[in-house]
């Protein structure tokens, strides 16, 4: 609408628009090293051992003469024989000088345990006298001393390689891949006739703004050929034809549009202007009255109708039309002036004076119009 209005105003004014740790070693040696004092007592011990041996030999001979089966006397095992070979070897490695100084000697061992052997011998004699009536019993050999010796920690045996358990490889069933959304194929839908017409119309309007009127006319006519009811395209085409001084063609375009759409008030307004230029005011009023819109939709429509009523001296209709449009746009001074004229013609001077005063206080008034308003105010002031 604004584009058409501007074009119409141009016609009137004849102007052109515009982002491994170390292991802990343990000492397995439990023996004590021999001292120098022990070595000095060695001859006495050897002599004592010989005496004990001779005594035992004599006692044995005496028992043999009585035909008594001698009881087996178990000598306590030596300390070295009771220890494990590994411990003795360890002691030898740890104390080489002690091992060299002490050599196994039955006389020495007898000398070391003289009291125990003597006690054992006397116990054997008493046992023999007591058992002279009963048959001799063979005593079980005593438990080895190794059992009473402190246990030597041995390195734990290396674990036997165990047969690995049968591995059950669970072949987990892979979850199914998420189903991808089906690809949306872009299908170009052919445009309908109405859509093609709308595109052609928009192109034509852009060309008008660029003042390329010839190309604009071609595009707008194409739009109407596709959709004859496209009022906007028909409206702009008529304005283009009017600017080209082809009013007859513009009138035909508008008339065909009004025949198809009786209430097309925008076409009626342009058509009425063409009729007014040909001095066909009554015909223009009829065209406008046949397509009356609401004042808020097209204030210019009512401004034109009021002016035409005024030209044919129908001031009551003119005043009514002016009042309706001024209720929407009270800032238009020219319409206040038109209202004042019609009221003055209706002999309603007081109301006319107030209308002229409103016009005088409006902005945008042309100098000639202001001069006219001032003159009428002076006249009406005198009459009051």
Explain what this protein looks like in three dimensions:
Helix 11 (231-243) packs antiparallel against helix 12 (247-260) and helix 15 runs antiparallel to helix 16. With 384 residues, this protein is mainly α. The protein has helices at residues 2-13, 36-40, 42-65, 79-82, 85-94, 96-101, 106-112, 114-130, 193-209, 213-226, 231-243, 247-260, 265-277, 281-289, 299-311, 315-326, 333-345, 349-360, 367-383. 21% of the residues are buried. The protein is built from 19 helices and no strands. Among the domains are: 193-292, Serine Threonine Protein Phosphatase 5, Tetratricopeptide repeat, CATH 1.25.40.10; 318-384, Serine Threonine Protein Phosphatase 5, Tetratricopeptide repeat.
Short note summarizing the structure:
With 384 residues, this protein is mainly α.
Span between termini: 43 Å
Strand segment count: 0
Overall structural class, as computed from helix and strand content, comes to mainly alpha
Low-confidence stretches: 15-40, 67-153
Helix and strand topology:
Elements: H1 2-13, H2 36-40, H3 42-65, H4 79-82, H5 85-94, H6 96-101, H7 106-112, H8 114-130, H9 193-209, H10 213-226, H11 231-243, H12 247-260, H13 265-277, H14 281-289, H15 299-311, H16 315-326, H17 333-345, H18 349-360, H19 367-383
Helix pairs in contact: 1-11, 3-7, 9-10, 9-11, 10-11, 11-12, 12-13, 13-14, 14-15, 15-16, 16-17, 17-18, 18-19
Features:
elongated, Serine Threonine Protein Phosphatase 5, Tetratricopeptide repeat, 384 residues, mainly alpha, single chain, 19 helices
């Amino acid at each position: 609408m604004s584009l058409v209005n501007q074009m119409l105003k141009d016609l009137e004014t004849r102007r052109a628009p515009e982002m491994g740790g170390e292991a802990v070693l343990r000492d397995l040696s439990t023996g004590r090293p021999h001292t120098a004092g022990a070595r000095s007592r060695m001859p006495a011990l050897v002599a004592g051992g010989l005496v004990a041996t001779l005594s035992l030999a004599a006692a044995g001979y005496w028992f043999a003469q009585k035909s008594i089966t001698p009881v087996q006397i178990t000598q306590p095992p030596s300390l070295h024989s009771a220890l494990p070979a590994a411990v003795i070897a360890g002691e030898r490695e740890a104390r080489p000088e002690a091992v060299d100084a002490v050599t196994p000697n039955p006389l020495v061992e007898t000398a070391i345990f003289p009291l125990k052997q003597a006690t054992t011998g006397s116990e054997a004699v008493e046992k023999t006298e007591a058992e002279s009536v009963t048959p001799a019993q063979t005593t079980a050999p005593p438990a080895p001393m190794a059992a009473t010796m402190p246990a030597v920690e041995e390195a734990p045996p290396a674990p036997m390689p165990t047969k690995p358990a049968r591995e059950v490889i669970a072949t987990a069933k892979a979850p199914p891949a998420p189903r991808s959304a089906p690809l949306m194929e872009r299908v170009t839908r052919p445009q309908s006739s109405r859509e093609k017409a709308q595109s052609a119309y928009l192109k034509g309007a852009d060309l008008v703004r660029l003042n390329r009127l010839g190309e604009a006319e071609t595009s707008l006519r194409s739009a109407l050929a596709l959709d004859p009811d496209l009022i906007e395209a028909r409206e702009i085409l008529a304005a283009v034809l009017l600017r080209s001084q082809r009013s007859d063609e513009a009138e035909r375009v508008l008339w065909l549009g009004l025949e198809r759409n009786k209430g097309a008030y925008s076409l009626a307004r342009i058509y009425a202007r063409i009729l007014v230029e040909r001095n066909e005011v009554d015909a223009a009023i009829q065209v406008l009255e046949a397509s009356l819109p609401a004042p808020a939709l097209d204030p210019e429509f009512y401004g034109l109708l009021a002016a035409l009523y005024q030209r044919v001296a129908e001031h009551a209709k003119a005043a009514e039309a002016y009042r309706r449009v001024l209720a929407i746009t009270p800032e238009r001074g020219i319409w206040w002036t038109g209202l004042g004229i019609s009221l003055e013609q209706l002999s309603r001077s007081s109301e006319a004076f107030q209308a002229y005063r409103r016009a005088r206080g409006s902005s945008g008034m042309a100098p000639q119009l202001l001069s006219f308003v001032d003159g009428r105010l002076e006249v009406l002031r005198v009459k009051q």
